[in-house]
Amino acid sequence: MRKRFDPQSPRFAASPFSSAIATTIKMIATTVRSATRIVSQYGRRSALSSSTSISDKSAASSSCCSISAIRCSSSAALNNDAASPPPPPSAQTTSTPHNVYMWGTSKQGTIPLSLLQEGGASASSGGMFSTGNEKIVDHPMSLNLDQGALTSFLGDDNDNNTTDDDDDATKLQQIFCGATGTAVVLNDGRCFVFGSNKNGELGIGKGPKSTETPVHVPLPDPVAKVSLGPNFSAFLTTTGDLYTCGYGGSAVNGMGCLGHGNMESYQSPKLVNSLVEDGCYAADVHCGEYSMTVLTTEGEVLTCGTGSFGRLGNMETLDQLYLEPVEMIAGDDVVQIASGFAFSLALNKGGIIHAWGKNNEGQLGAGVGLAVDVYAMESLPTPIEGLLEGRKVTRIAAGHSHAAAVTSTGELFTWGMHMDHEPKLENSLLHTKIVDVACGQNYTLALDQEGRLYSLGKGKTGVLGLASTKMTPQPILVEGIPAEEKVVTMSAGWTHVACTTALSE
């Protein structure tokens, strides 16, 4: 176990009783975990050097094929063991989207306004309007993804002689909306980012505090997932490697959120080398305010960063400079994670959710047994029960201060936002089967099996896509997407939304 930062400060103080319990839990879980990881540790240490820079990592490209093969087999084994319903459409598609739609508030260029075009469903009668330096788009608008428009927007000169029909033409594959930024991943695995960069969270090097012009983030392997947090970000590659950049922390806010063993900030993505040394392959990552949560291909949950409000899930309030396992759920075979501003969720293959971290708005779904105030928290993973007890959860999502879950029968539950302190069934959606869910800042998106999108929550920033900025407590169908298209993936940022579609069969 690596050393953790332990300054003599009341903020990090823990009682002798709680420390003794935490130590006992860690000793038991560490013994079990070590036996299962020793083989993968040996294999990965042989495959990669302990390099931490992108340039050095590129030198190991000859071993990337074997790494990718190992990771794929590990992921497949995990998925096969998880006896759950078929994954939602967002987990099934790898093809180029038919259309990409965006809406919400464009802050510092988070929505590419130059690419927006009308042409959605005629039922949408919303508009685009300004509020100060921000633009609000209150209904879905498609992006112009024609070859010329896209390459011009990206500033990509590599495809001047290609057309939309060429196999090697530049095409948008995925889009990720973060707290204050946006990332797009192309069909060749390259990643471009735009939006706020006040702490270097876009990973574009020493540059402006924000950019409306997409900037390429050079990484040695194709990008599979991007998590853009409010202060730092993480890039996950198809080889299972994790890169982080942005704010590294401080003695006041806590430190270690980048997972590099220090409190330094980095303007460009830096390989989290400790995962390589430990033989771990990342399958998912979520960035909170000052903490990071990672899911490995073995179903293990790791956390690092500030320990305040129990957001690391290890009972202690110590900061963790490296990614460490959440011991209480070390043997749970976790299949999905989600993180909000200062809390996290983990879903195991049995369909049970565990939650930990800040609970000031009821975002942990623990009910009102304890006072829910500004100091409310859970420092250990706690199962969410209430109406979810006896039901099998298949999908989870976390917003800024609320969360949602989908069950195997297609029910949607939401909680948090100072409205519901335990899971609440959204009865108005019982006429359809929900298969996926996403949460932003005070709003929720739900996708049904027919590819139709519903939204609920606070609409002040236009994120509901209902041609209105009013709040809606009940899920309402987003009608701005043509009926002949079905939503395949969706991404909910704090104040902006993106979804991809395919033609209905």
Q: Which overall shape is indicated by the principal axes computed on the Cα atoms?
A: globular
In percent terms, what proportion of residues is strand? 35-45%
What integer value in Å does the Rg equal? 22 Å
Low-confidence stretches: 1-19, 29-93, 120-124
Beta-strand segment tally: 32
Query: What level of helicity do the residues show?
Result: 10-25%
Helix-and-strand structural type: mainly beta
How far is the first residue's CA from the last residue's CA?
A: 52 Å
Instruction: Report the average pLDDT across residues.
Output: 83
Oligomer: single chain
Largest sheet: 6 strands, antiparallel
Q: How many separate helices?
A: 5
What is the topology?
Blueprint: H1 16-47, H2 54-58, H3 64-81, E1 99-106, E2 116-117, E3 128-131, E4 134-143, H4 147-154, E5 172-177, E6 181-186, E7 191-196, E8 210-217, E9 223-228, E10 232-237, E11 242-246, E12 249-250, E13 254-255, E14 266-271, H5 273-277, E15 282-287, E16 291-296, E17 301-305, E18 320-325, E19 334-339, E20 343-348, E21 353-358, E22 377-383, E23 393-398, E24 402-407, E25 412-416, E26 420-425, E27 434-439, E28 443-448, E29 453-457, E30 472-477, E31 485-492, E32 496-503
Antiparallel strand pairs: 1-4, 1-32, 2-4, 3-4, 5-6, 6-7, 7-8, 9-10, 10-11, 11-14, 12-13, 15-16, 16-17, 17-18, 19-20, 20-21, 21-22, 23-24, 24-25, 25-26, 27-28, 28-29, 29-30, 31-32
Question: What do these coordinates show?
Answer:
This protein is mainly beta and 505 residues long. It has 5 helices and 32 strands. The protein has helices at 16-47, 54-58, 64-81, 147-154, 273-277, and strands at 99-106, 116-117, 128-131, 134-143, 172-177, 181-186, 191-196, 210-217, 223-228, 232-237, 242-246, 249-250, 254-255, 266-271, 282-287, 291-296, 301-305, 320-325, 334-339, 343-348, 353-358, 377-383, 393-398, 402-407, 412-416, 420-425, 434-439, 443-448, 453-457, 472-477, 485-492, 496-503. Strands 1, 2, 3, 4, 31 and 32 form a 6-stranded antiparallel β-sheet that branches. A hairpin with a 3-residue loop joins strand 23 (393-398) and strand 24. The longest helix is centred in the N-terminal third of the chain and has 32 residues, at 16-47. The termini are far apart.
